[in-house]
Structure formats: structure tokens, C-alpha cells
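WARN retry 2 of 3 for item q-0093 after timeout on previous attempt; input resubmitted unchanged.
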Amino acid sequence: MNGRNLTLLCDFYELTMANGYFQSGKRDTIAYFDVFFRDVPDGGGFAIAAGLAQIIDYVKELRFSEDDIEYLRAQNCFSEEFLDYLRSFRFTGDIYAVPEGTPIFPREPVITVRAPVMEAQFIETYLLTVFNHQSLIATKANRIARAADGRVVSEFGARRAQGADAAFLGARAAYIGGVNSTSCTLTAKDFSVPVSGTMAHSWVQMFDSEYEAFETYCRLYPDNATLLVDTYNVVKSGIPNAIKAFKACNTTKCGIRIDSGDIAYLTKKARAMLDEAGLTDCRIVVSNSLDEKIIADIIRQGAKIDAFGVGERLITAKSHPVFGGVYKLSAVEENGEIVPKIKISENHEKITNPHFKKLYRLFRRSTGRAIADYIALHDEVVDDAQPLELFDPIYTWKRQTVSDYYAVELLKPIFLNGELVYDSPDISSIRDYCSEQVATLWEEVRRFENPHRYYVDLSQRLWDLKNELLAKGGKQ
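OK item q-0093 returned
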């Protein structure tokens, strides 16, 4: 939060609706909202959930200042009674969410909010802003890290991010997704993410010669000297001067970085020159508008690379810059009973799943691999000692009965009655958890092109309820 009051980081209609609920007697009506998304970025097989820690901070600090209230008064559309109510506004409801780092799939609830409708409606914008951004970057980072096939990946896109928060929190999300370090010092400091960096071309240009620039840098950083060798000419001057500087300073923990040109060709040439000079442990780092497709291609071409620096195409998710998470009403409470709500569309993918729900992930006992996700009503319990029939919610004749499985409930309580009940893991634990959970997915789901569709199925009771509401046009 960095000391800022983000309460008014909301859409104005959330305030006008809240005023409307207040004046129409609905202020205390309990509502249920689900956060879900419809499409995986880049046509991938799954996404990565991120941003929960910042959502927790926001909800904990949610307050209207007198300055906020005065601003709203000046808009001349809010009742004085409502403005007075805002002085004591707090979140008093429940929030359930999947842990950060969890692989997630379209149309399943990944955050559920149960609260008085004014509170539940009001937090929509911030929840979506944080969830959409960080999940987008974590998903892209995971693709890039997997494409690197065990090689080090450093995020250094801060200068190309869409603003300070995008750089700061984008680097956090990238680390969760699987990169090894960041160049964003503030992210490294605040979240204990490993920090990394080398030099700019301007360092080389500041000296009378390329060799002088390299030799000076090696003397200053004898245990971590990575030299940028493409300021003038990689093969003719950059690598020869780097070799000369490493040897003059007896530098053994060293590296070179190539930021332009034909990466595959230049790294193979560089590796041969370094090895011939006896610098077999010298690392080769490459950068220059990389993404998962380029990384996979140059690896296939035999490029000799130890580490990647990835900037703009990661921090902006350039190839698919919108995540598309939405926040939809699924139920209200009337006289102590949960009344399901549904949004209907001619596009079946935009039809929502009604009611207060659970989300299970089913794993094969014999392999530990994920079989499918299973959305059930809140009072249903999956007995994994018994076989379970799964069916496609659209093509219902596609059915299978699974056994030899265990079920894990994914949505965890985060706030109950306005009180935080969840202990957020440290970021290294989140990153490890992400890696472990991605490894439970079949390779066919993890592939970049035309991945196998992972099944997200509805329980029979939920499917029946949904179709009953559809038959009635959404009305009870």
C-alpha cells in the first residue's frame, strides 16, 4: 500500500450503487460474488493466480478519510446519511480464495466474496485490478521460465512497465511465476526477491576505450563481473576485450551479456572464444525483447546460453496484455436462505455458474497428476473413497468415472466476518508452491501450442440448478 489510501481506487458506479442500496433498504443484504476468468492468455493451457497478498492489505486498510467524503459530497449525488455512514465503513464479510501460485482455469471461481452487498460491490475494482495484473504477469513469467528449460531468467522490465506499480508488483508476480531474480530494487527489498543487474551501454561509452570500461568494472566487482559486449562489435572487440579484462583482473566468476544481433549465432561464437581462452565457466547472458517463443526457438537452434534477461515482453505481457478476470453476482441471502443468481447470455461462455460454491481439484493417487477441477455447491462434500462421475458441462455425453483419486478443496478462507484468518506465505514459499503445482499438470496441458483442454466440471446438483434457472430465464 506504501502509505497511500486506495479506498477511492474504485469505479464511480460502485459508490452510486452503494448509495442506492443504502437508500433502498438493501444495505444489509448479503451477496455472493465470484471472481473468475474466461480465457487463458496466449492460448495457454492454464494461468497462475497471484495478487492475494495485496488484496489482503487493501481490505485490512479499507477506510474513507474526511477528504474522501468531502470529495464525494462535492459530486452532489450522495445522501448525507450515506456520507455519514462511510465514516465507519469497514469490510465485515468473508473472502475465500485459491492460494497465490495455484494453476487456475477458465470459468472456475478463484475468489469468492460473501458480504453485505454494499461492501461486496465496493471492493470489485481493486480485487480485479490486482488479480488481473499479477495473474497476467505470473502466467507470462511461468511460460518464459518453462521455455528457458532450467536456465536462469531475470526480470528487468521496470523501465518498460506501465507505471511504477506495474513495475513494482509486476516483478513480484514474475518471481511467483518462476523467474529467478529481478532488477527492480524496490521489489527485491520489500519482498525479499533476489536482485540482479549488470551494466548499461552508457558505462562502456563513458570510458576512452571498451577495454578500460571492462577492466575498471572487473576491478570494482571481482566476484560478480558481467560485461556487456555488444556496444561496438561483439566478435571483433567485445568478447576479446572481455577476455583480456577477465585475465588482467584474475576474474573467474564472470559473464558476458549480449543485447543485440543474432543471439543464436553470437552465443555459439562467444562460447567457442571463451572456451579457447580457458574461461569455460564464464556465463553467457542474453537479452533483447525476448519471450517464451523466441527463447524456445534459439535454444532449439543450439544457442549457448546460461541465463536470460527478459524485460518488456514479460512486464507488459505484450503478446496478450489483458487477463480478463470478471466479478459476478452468484447469490444473495433472503430470510437466512441462499438464493442463487445467474447471468444469462447468448454466448454460453458468458453464462455464470450460480450459488455459493466450492472448488475441488482431483489428483490421481498413483501419479499425483491433476485429473480435473470440480465445482460443487457449498454444502457438497467429495468423498474420494468413492468413484466420482465427471461430465462435460456443455457436451454432457462426454463422461468418465474416476477412482484412485484424492480431492483437494482449493478455495481457502481469507477473511471471516471481516477478520483476517489466513497466514500469507513468504514469496519464496509461494514460488515453490507454484512450481510444485504446475508439475502436477500433464505435459499436454503445459505445452505452449494447442494445449490439451483441462477439464473443469460441475457437480450434478450444480448443473441441474444452473439449467433450472436457465429454463426459467434466470428468475426464481
